[in-house]
Design a protein that fits this description.
Layout: H1 2-41, H2 47-54, H3 64-77, H4 87-99, H5 111-114, H6 121-131, H7 147-158
The chain binds heme C.
Amino acid sequence: MKDQDSIFFKNFSLMLGFLILLTIVLAIVGYEMHHSLIDSNDMTKDRSAIAKSIQSVSQVNTGEAIVAVADTAAEEVTVAFDGTLDGKTIYDNVCMACHNTGAAGAPKLEAAAWTERMAVGIDGLVTSAIAGKGAMPPRGGRADLSDEQMKAVVEFMTAGF
Ligand code: HEC
C-alpha cells in the first residue's frame, strides 16, 4: 500500500509539473501572438484605423443638403415684386447681376455705356430688354416682370444719361 502511494505521488507530481510547464508555455505563446497581432494592425496607435474598420458601409442622407438647395432655389423664384414700379428694387434683385459688373458686355450704369444705345429712345430700349438681346435673356430672365415694370427699370437705369 505504501509503495502504491509513493508511485501515485510520483506520477501525480510529474503530471502536475508537466501541466505547470504547459501553462507557462501557453501563456508565453499567447502573449507573443497578442502583441504581434496588435503590431500588424497598428490599431492601438491609429484611432482612425479603428473608426474605419467599424464604420457603417453606407451613410443615411438626412436630406439636409437637398432641403438647403431647394430653399435657395425657392428663394430665387419667390423674390416677388408685387407689381412694384420701383425700378431700383427690381434692378437690385434682377438686372444688377450683369449690369453692375458689365458681365458679357452688359452696359453698366454709366453714361458712356448708354449714350449710343439711347438713340433708339427709352421705348426702344424697353422693347429690346423685354425681347432680350445678345447675352441678355428676355426680361433679364424674369418672365414675371410686366412691361410696365421693365419700363420702370430701364428708366431707372438710364436716368440722367
Ligand atoms: C444675364 C445678364 C443680364 C441680366 C440679368 C440683365 N441684362 Fe440687360 N443686358 C445684358 C447684356 C449682355 C446686354 C447687352 C446686349 C447687347 O447689346 O448685345 C444687355 C443690354 C440691356 C439693355 C440695352 C438694350 C439695347 O437695346 O441696347 C437694356 C435696356 C437692358 N439690358 C435692361 C435690363 C434690365 C431692365 C434688366 C433686369 C430686368 C436686365 N437688363 C438684366 C445682360 C443682362
